[in-house]
UniProtKB/TrEMBL annotation:
Residues 34-131 form the Rhodanese domain. GO terms for molecular function: thiosulfate-cyanide sulfurtransferase activity. This is Rhodanese-like domain-containing protein. It comes from the Bacteria.
Length: 135
């Protein structure tokens, strides 16, 4: 039996995209070099990174760990999030990153954005890509 949802992912995505700051690949390319306090966070599955590469210097965080890794009260907190005051999340198409950015905002994060169109848009815009070796 098909689940009955009161709100599907497209509705959640629309809400998130209205609430979050979205950067184009060109805006991100322009600001990356100037903003030493920027943490670029790749939310894709490790298999996606190994298959397609990642934006140079990006930190990998599986989307399912975000709430735990960014919260200083969590036993899973990652100190890299305390080292940077501005974060930009990205995924493949910009869907996961919009939803994740919206959730982080609900947790109180203020200096945050996501890459509109995701890694695919980055590549299409001629953005640099670095290989991620298989472990």
């Amino acid at each position: 039996m098909k689940p009955v949802l009161s709100k599907g992912f497209f509705a959640l995505l629309e809400e998130a995209e209205q609430a979050v700051e979205s950067l184009t690949p060109e805006q991100l390319m322009e600001s990356r070099g100037d903003d030493k306090d920027l943490l670029l966070v790749d939310l894709r599955d490790i298999r996606e990174l190994q298959r397609e590469g990642k934006i140079p210097g990006a930190f990998h965080m599986p989307r399912g760990m975000m709430e735990f890794w960014i919260d200083p009260e969590s036993p899973y907190f990652k100190g890299i999030f305390a080292e940077h005051s501005r974060w930009v999340f990205y995924c493949n198409k910009g869907w996961r990153s919009a939803l994740t950015t919206h959730t982080a905002m609900q947790m109180g994060v203020t200096h945050i954005a996501h890459l509109a169109g995701g890694f695919s848009a980055w590549v299409d815009a001629g953005g640099e890509v670095e290989e991620v070796p298989k472990r």
